[in-house]
Description:
Blueprint: H1 3-20, H2 27-38, H3 45-57, H4 59-69, H5 80-94, H6 103-117, H7 122-140, H8 151-157
Helix pairs in contact: 1-2, 1-3, 1-5, 4-5, 5-6, 5-7, 6-7
Amino acid sequence: xxxxxxxxxxxxxxxxxxxFYSQKNDLIKIVERNLLEFAPGIDxxxxxxxxxxxxxxxxxDLNEIITKVAPDWPLEQIAIIDRNAIRIGLYExxxxxxxxxxxxxxxxxxxxxxxxxxxxxxxxxxxxVLGTVYKQMIASGDLKEEPKREKKEKAAEK
Length: 158
């Protein structure tokens, strides 16, 4: 597993535990424990910490966006895994450095993590939420659409 994928998995597991206990447990201790247990010697632990810090700093905004984009799903009714995968993806899409994590990569990573840890429809749900936010950001001018690459270019990279 790539370093950043592993970091996202640890962040997801940590946010899950924190959220499960109504955000009353010490998130820093949870992340520290999970990094030691599930990602010893990870190359970029600072990436995981930036995600956690950013998500916590923007938690209210992230939750409001989820509520607006998925009005049929009250936040507390969204599965904890899905809710936190969306938070990770939204944070990377909206607040992270797009040179470091391009928007489509942020969306794809959130979808993949939800497929690994969520239910059978998690990927589709997260794709719908993040795709809607991505389109809204492009329409508002907050984000420039990434050019579509030809199939031959994608195949050549593999």
